[in-house]
Amino acid sequence: MNMHTNSKGEIQEEQYDFPYHFIPEVENDAIVANRFLQWSMAYMGYISLVKDDLLKTNAQNIIDVGCGDGRMLYELERSDPERKYTGIDISERALHFARGFTRHSKFEIFDVIESPYQFEFDACTYIETIEHIPPEKIKIMMSNIAKSLKKDGILYLTTPTTNITTSAKHYQHFDLEKIKMYLDDSFEIVEVQYLNKENWLSKTLARLLVNKAVSVNLFFYRKLIFKLYNQHCLHGHKKTGSRIYVKARRK
To answer: Would you tell me how many other CB atoms lie within 10 Å of the CB of residue 250?
Structure first.
């Protein structure tokens, strides 16, 4: 979900040789994982949470900023194909995958750092993107996202927290105070959740699901593991969450 071309952006671009966000899957409440993807449960947990929250609202026109290979919009349109979905990114390679995996969404090369999108949406998903943006450009980006939303439109933002080591492809990870600093000019934060608890149980469940020796394929076993993860590890708190999920209303 890259929105800026630079050395860190090049790392993300290289990863779009394959649409890796589409490898993990949930089938009948059972996680389907690959042995190289121990992040499967965390990833499916938070995008499912965002999807469910958004689809409880009356938002009809939704934009995904930094949509990458389109997994967020794929999940949204699979649950409700009647709403209108638009994805924007600066990676044409990623958008090729997005167009291939979705049926109803519109995708466009667009850099919202440069200008607002010329349409006012009801809601915006901004999933694992802000960490890819140079810090000096985040405020202008948030201002342009706000201008792309209707008054009182809702922003759904997720990003890694400072509880985990900053990835080589990220500029920074975030705590709530830092997010407030970047959002306050354009948005009012209405809800905050800490997700993907990092503890012994989450690590044990990941090892039980996938490891170098075995990838578990028994349906009921995978369903049980994912259920335990969602019950005990999806939601964390300030000190244990590896991800922060913020809902904010356009001022």
So the answer is: 21
What token pair was written down for 162? 């400072």
pLDDT tens digit sequence for 53-89: 999 999 999 999 999 999 999 999 999 999 999 999 9
Query: Which residue carries 């890259």 as its tokens?
Result: 2
Tokens, residue 171? 């500029």
φ, ψ of residue 7 in degrees (nearest 5): -60, -40
Residue 54 sits at φ, ψ, to 5 deg, of -65, -40
pLDDT digits (tens, 9 = 90+) for 88-106: 999 999 999 999 999 999 9
Report d(CA 93, CA 106) in Å as an integer: 15
Q: Give CATH for domain 7-22+39-195+236-250.
A: 3.40.50.150
Name which of 246, 248, 249, 245 is nearest 45 in CA terms.
245
Angle at 251 between CA 138 and CA 51, to 5 degrees: 75
Task: State whether residue 173 is helix, strand or coil.
Answer: coil
* Residue 100 Cα to chain centre, angstroms: 19
User: Distance between CA 66 and CA 38 in Å, rounded?
Assistant: 23
Burial class of residue 14, CB neighbours in 10 A (0-12, 13-18, 19+): exposed
In sequence order, what are the residues at sequence separation of 6 or more whose Cβ sits closer than 8 angstroms to the Cβ of residue 232? 197, 201
| CA separation, residue 184 to residues 137, 144, 157, 188 (Å) | 15, 13, 14, 6
**Domain ranges within the chain, ordered by starting residue:** 7-22+39-195+236-250
- Residue 213 pLDDT exceeds 70: no
Rounded to whole angstroms, the Cα distance separating 158 from 124 reads 12
